[in-house]
Amino acid sequence: MKNYLIGFSLLLFAFFLFWEQAKVQHKNAGEDQLRDKILSQAQGDDNYTAPNIVDGAERGMQSDDNSTPLSVKIPQEVKTFEGLVRDSSSFEFTTFGGAISAVHLEEAARLKKSYNMKFSTNDDGKGVNDNAFSMSFEDHNGDLLNKPLPGHDIRAYEIAGGDLNSKVTFVNRSGNVEVHREYFREANETYVIRHKTTVINRGDSNLKLDRIRFGIGSAFPISRKFNFIDQAASYMHVGYYNSGSPQEASWGCAKCSGRIDGETEEFFQVNEMGDYDRLHEGKKLSEAKWASVNNQFFVSILRPKDEKDAVVRGMPIERYTDGNASNSEQGVTGFISIPFGEILAGGSRSVECFYYAGPKDYMILSSLGMDQDKVMQFNPFEWVSGPMNWLLNKLQDVLGNFGLAIIVLTILLKLVLWPLTAKATRSQKRMQALQEPMAKLREKYKSDSQKMNQEMMKFYKEQGVNPFAGCWPILVQMPIFLGMFYMLRSAAELYGQSFLWVSDLSEQDNVADIAGFSINALPFVMLATQWFQMKLTPMQLGPDASDSQRINAKMMRMMPFMFLVFLYFFSSALVLYWTVQNSMSIFQTLITKKGKSPKEIEAERSILKKDEAKTGQKKPDADFIEQEERQHRQVLGLKLRGKLNKKQIDEIYRGRMEKYHPDKLRNLGAKRQDEAMQKKERLEAAYEFLLKKLANKS
After folding, report:
1. SS3 string of 231-275?
2. Contacts of 20 (CB under 8 A, 6+ apart)
């Protein structure tokens, strides 16, 4: 009764979390409409004064009466337009700095739900331009230069002519400089564009521009149902991938200086960056392949053509969700700076970059090269998550549905692990059959734990039982489960995919809402399968069971409820995987149960003991073979159970004896020759013993 009370308490706790969900369920609702409203208000205000802007970084974003800063402040003359349009996505450009203000992702073959990657410009009121490819300049220390381009007006960018679907060009001729900003997109490129910035010095003096800084973009949480375990902020990252050589002796304090040497990727969550944290001052990369900004399913990756000596920065930002400054959501924005150099009078200088803005799709990112698939953040289970994602997509290509693909993938994994699980099940049966003698041993040596452990291990060895065999399926399956967890939680190809009653496999399988609570059906199906699986494999606890065994049994009874609470809030894809996993375990248990039960094995042992008492000879059975025969079978590599076969014994013996031919032993050292001869003698003894065993049986 106590166990049921505990389970009921866990369910009450889950419903309490549902209540908390109701408070945050609609926090992100109406976000796009609000942003458009604020934009229109800002652009339609005749009294609006453009902010003081220095090279893409705004110093003041207050309204005219110095009240709370507005969510968006954009000068009236700023124009936005779409360009580089493809079926998969289109880019929204702004004449404010000649940058990218948004990317519109369309429903396509591998993305079943459209999404707008809107880059927040000055939403936080801290004077940060978060547009992709917002441009500013630094000195060699990384400090922003004040008015580095004489007379340059960031609002004076104009659109040059041409086909805006293949190339977008901005030109700025204000002051003594001329800036060209070009964006290219090939017809066959899905989410990748190329960028080139050229600065021409029209003045009479040199321009000292040590470094150029580009905005990578910004990311905000995707509107999701409440999950108290897996918060949306945990997916908000600024990251990078470095491919430089290992740290050299001259850089003995590379970490102290913030420099990153060697090949590594690293991602910083929103709570790990800021004015006094790890990413605000920047990470100095010896050879930066790329830098990124991402949320759960979508990512912006900026890859400079020149990879050396880059610096990556990141910081948290905010934007309002309901027009009230007290209600905001936190996002991240990132920047990368690379060497630029001095421009002589009348000279020019250019930099080029590649830019990916799209879903976190492992298959697409892998095809891009440059290790851009590392933005999936599969580590430390990349060795599982990567192949599983590849196989999942291949199955989807065949089956046409990701739900079916997850089911088939789970079945394939279970079949691969079937032999190991079956062996563990047999070992557990044997352990259950030996509970009584094991309890007697524990009672006999209860005052001497060391002696008890020695006698127990001796007893296991005599009986041919491995007490740890039952742990292997759990140890093997845990990294697979975690690998699937990391893969399914960020796989953008699941975003918007439907299956049965599930409208979105990347989200909870919401079937109804009651007072703001999301009612999910699939977790309860999972609970039923796990409960039934537990009932099929009860722990046999006799009166002599130890306290630890009884505690373990109670924990096992509570596992279904623990999994319900844990998985209730996660994506239906993950719950579907675990439900099918449980169903396959039930199927395997039902098949394995057709074998001998512990009571049957013990009954056979009793009969054998009676026969031995009458005849004075031991007779091996299918599950328990005398120790001497086991040892000789192991020497020849034979199975430890089953009938002996003379032809098989002869073939194995001849094959192994070839290793000890005198010609092969002649070139070995004296010590290795002695070891080889000892092995040869054991092989001959095993061969003679087993042949004699066969002769006695006949």
Report:
1. CHHHHCEEEEEEECCCCCHHHCCHHHHCEECCEEEEEEEHHHCCC
2. 226, 228
Is 582 inside a domain boundary?
A: yes
Residue 130: exposure state from Cβ atoms within 10 A (0-12, 13-18, ≥19): buried
Q: Same structural domain for residues 485 and 633?
A: no
Residue 153 falls inside a structural domain: yes
pLDDT of residue 625: 60
Q: Rg of the Cα trace of the chain? A: 34
Backbone angles phi, psi at 559, to 5 degrees: -55, -45
State which H helix or E strand residue 196 sits in.
Answer: strand 192-201
Provide the token pair at 173.
């001729």
Same domain, 575 and 687: no
Ranges 179-188, 230-239, 579-588, 617-626: which has the least confidence? 617-626
How many other CB atoms are found less than 10 A from the CB of residue 151? 12
| More reliable by pLDDT, 650 or 233 | 650
> Of the residues 567, 592, 617, which one is the last residue of a structural domain?
592
State whether 357 and 474 are in the same domain: no
In terms of pTM, does the model score above 0.85?
Answer: no
Number of domains in the chain: 3
Average pLDDT of the residues in 78-99: 90
Handedness of CA 631, 635, 636, 637 (dihedral sign): positive
CA distance 624 to 609: 12
Cα–Cα distance for residue pair 158/285, rounded to 1 Å: 34
List the one residue out of 481, 491, 493, 496 whose CA is nearest residue 575. 481
Check whether residue 339 and residue 409 sit in a common domain. no
Same domain? 318 vs 394? no
Question: Does one domain contain both 582 and 653?
Answer: no
- Residue 419 burial by CB count (10 A; 0-12/13-18/19+): exposed, middle or buried? exposed
| CA-to-CA separations, 363 to 110, 299, 404, 489, in angstroms, rounded | 10, 14, 19, 15
Distance CA 430, CA 515 (A): 52
β-sheet bridge partners, residue 36:
none
Number of helical H runs and strand E runs in the chain: 18, 22
Cis (ω within 30 of 0) for the bond into 543? no
Whether residue 267 is predicted with pLDDT greater than 80 in this model: the reply is yes
Q: How far apart are CA 148 and CA 646, in angstroms?
A: 90
Q: For 144-208, give the DSSP string.
A: BPSS-STT--TT--EE--S-TTTEEEEEE--TTEEEEEEEE--TT-SSEEEEEEEEEE-SSS-B-
Do 332 and 237 fall into the same domain?
yes
CATH number at residue 311: 2.70.98.90
Max Cα separation, the chain?
A: 115
Q: Would you place residue 50 in the very low, low, confident or very high pLDDT band (cuts 50, 70, 90)?
A: very low
Q: Considering the domain boundaries, does residue 615 fall inside one? A: no
577, 525 contact by CB (below 8 A): no
DSSP label of 500: T
DSSP state of 539: -
In this predicted structure, the answer to whether residue 605 has a pLDDT above a threshold of 60 is: no
Q: Is 530 found in the same domain as 580?
A: yes
Spatial separation of the C-alpha atoms in residues 460 and 434, rounded to whole Å: 9
Full domain range(s) for residue 108: 45-224+232-377
Cβ contact 215:335 at 8 Å:
yes
Helix or strand holding residue 413 (H, E): helix 402-416
Q: Is residue 609 part of a domain?
A: no
pLDDT value of position 336: 94
In this predicted model, what pLDDT tens digit does every residue of 557-580 receive, in sequence order? 777 787 787 778 788 888 899 899
Q: Hey, is 416 helix, strand or coil?
A: helix
Q: Which tens digit of pLDDT belongs to each residue from 475-504?
A: 777 788 788 888 888 888 888 888 899 888
Q: Is 369 left (phi over 0), alpha (psi -120 to 50) or beta?
A: left
pLDDT level of residue 409 (50, 70, 90 thresholds): very high
